[in-house]
Specification:
The structure is a single chain. The chain has a single domain (5-160), classed as Aminopeptidase, CATH 3.40.630.10. 36% of the residues lie in helices and 27% in strands. It has 4 helices and 5 strands, in the order ααβββαβαβ. The chain has helices at residues 5-23, 31-47, 96-112, 141-146; strands at residues 53-59, 62-71, 76-86, 120-127, 153-160. A 5-stranded mixed sheet has the order 1-2-4-3-5. Strand 3 (76-86), helix 3 and strand 4 (120-127) form a beta-alpha-beta unit. Helix 1 packs across helix 3.
Length: 163
C-alpha cells in the first residue's frame, strides 16, 4: 500500500469537497452534475493508471451509469470481491455524508490497492441511482451491476454508505 495518514486524509477531504461542494446534488434530473461526477471519478482512476469501464443501463427512462474498475486476480480470477459506493444524492442535498464520503473512500482504497494483485478479482464500483425515486427498484445501480457477474462467483461485497 502506498500512502501515509496525512495524504489519505487530505485526499478524502478533497474528494468530498469536489463532489459535495463543487458539483453539489447529483441526480439524473440534473444531467450536468452526473456528467461532472462521472468525469471526476474517471479522471481520478485514469490519473492512477487504473482502467475502468462504464455500465450504462435504463433507469426508469433515463440513462444511468455505473463505473467499474476491475483488478484481475491471480489464482481465482473467476471469484470476485466487490467494494462499492453510490455517487448520486437525494435531490435537495449536496450529499457530503450520503454519499460523497463513501465515494471518497472508494477512490482512496482503489488508489492504495492499485499495485496490489490478489488471488481473487477485485472490483471497485461507483453505483448510480441508489436514492429515491430509484431506491428499492430494479433501476438501482447495485441491482444492475450484479447482473454483470456472468458465470463468476461473488465471494464478498461491501456497499459503503455514510462513512
Amino acid at each position: 500500500m502506498n500512502g501515509d495518514r496525512d495524504t489519505i486524509e487530505e485526499n478524502l477531504r478533497l474528494h468530498v469537497d469536489r463532489l459535495a461542494g463543487l458539483i453539489g446534488p447529483r441526480t439524473l434530473s440534473k444531467p450536468k452534475t452526473i456528467r461532472a461526477t462521472i468525469g471526476y471519478l474517471e479522471g481520478q482512476w485514469s490519473g492512477m493508471g487504473l482502467s475502468h469501464s462504464r455500465e450504462c443501463y435504463d433507469a426508469m427512462g433515463d440513462e444511468a451509469t455505473n463505473l467499474i474498475v476491475e483488478r484481475p486476480g491471480t489464482k481465482r480470477s473467476d471469484e470476485i470481491v466487490v467494494l462499492g459506493a453510490h455517487y448520486d444524492t437525494v435531490f435537495s442535498t449536496p450529499g457530503a455524508d450520503d454519499n460523497a464520503s463513501a465515494v471518497a473512500v472508494l477512490i482512496e482504497v482503489s488508489r492504495l490497492l492499485r499495485e496490489h494483485t490478489g488471488k481473487r478479482t477485485a472490483r471497485f464500483v461507483a453505483f448510480a441511482c441508489e436514492e429515491p425515486p430509484y431506491f428499492n427498484m430494479d433501476a438501482m445501480g447495485n441491482h444492475c451491476c450484479t447482473k454483470c457477474f456472468e458465470n463468476r462467483l461473488c465471494r464478498g461485497s461491501a456497499s459503503m454508505r455514510r462513512v
